[in-house]
Amino acid sequence: MPTPYGNRGGLAFGAEELRVLRRALALALHPSPASETDVRDCLRLAESVDAAARESARMRAFLLADLDRYRAALPGSASGYLSLLADALAAGYRPGVDDLAGLRALRGNPGAAALLGHCRALAEESLRERLAARHRPRVPASRSHLLALPGGLTAGDQQPAKPRPAPPKPMPTPAEVFPPKRRPARPAAPSQRLVAG
User: Fold this and answer.
1) Which of 45, 130, 157, 190 maximizes the CB count within 10 A of its CB?
2) Straight-line distance from the first to the last Cα atom of the chain, in angstroms, rounded to the nearest whole number
3) Which residues are CB-neighbours of 24 under 8 A, at least 6 positions away?
4) HEC profile of 21-32
5) How many Cβ atoms from other residues are within 10 Å of residue 95's Cβ?
6) What is d(CA 10, CA 40) in angstroms, rounded to the nearest whole number?
7) Which has the closest alpha carbon to 79: 50, 102, 52?
């Protein structure tokens, strides 16, 4: 089974897994009938890769939760926090406001000062990317039908008639929305029959 390698989502493969991966790539590049064992091996490898990816995501979540705990315990946990933050940054973590504030509080530590400079640069880069993404023109999705897919329209076909929208429902009156409360019926008066006796 491939195992997570490092903090960036890398996977380490064994010799047997590499053989299966090579065979799967060869089949993808040069399509030919695959044997039943090759298909079974590819499916098993895909399941293993999925399991390793889930484990890698679990490890990353654990690292970030640990980072939050150490940040909350600052300044007493400075050395542990700095090493965890360095690991998280190596894994692609973008420092937040809390991280910058925690590093500013530890500025007297040379390791914290170096990490603060690195985190500031990453935070500025992240901010620039978000601002650039905001001002980037957005291309609307295509509104035309796909013609090349099976079941799609060909060039000679006519566009299907668009269904008419249902007529709008009339606005209900307040009496329909809030019907008057019904008063309970009064019990019928007992009949007064006189019995001769």
Assistant:
1) 45
2) 103
3) 38, 42, 45
4) HHHHHHHHHCCC
5) 22
6) 24
7) 102
Dig out the tokens for 196 from the structure: 């001769």
What does pTM read for this prediction?
A: 0.50
pLDDT in tens, the chain (197 residues): 666 666 566 777 788 888 888 888 888 888 888 888 888 888 888 888 888 888 888 888 888 888 888 888 877 778 888 888 888 888 788 888 888 888 888 888 888 888 888 899 998 998 888 888 887 776 665 555 545 445 545 555 566 666 777 778 788 777 777 777 777 777 666 666 656 65
Cis preceding linkage at 33, omega within 30? no
Phi, psi of 176 (to 5 degrees): -75, -35
CA–CA gap between residue 13 and residue 2 (Å, rounded): 5
How far apart are alpha carbons 35 and 43 in whole angstroms?
A: 13
d(CA 87, CA 93) in angstroms, rounded, equals 9
Give the number of residues written for the chain: 197
Helix (H) or strand (E) holding 10, with range, is strand 10-12
CA distances to 132, 144, 159 from 140, in Å? 18, 12, 21
* Pairing outcome for strands 10-12 and 3-5: antiparallel
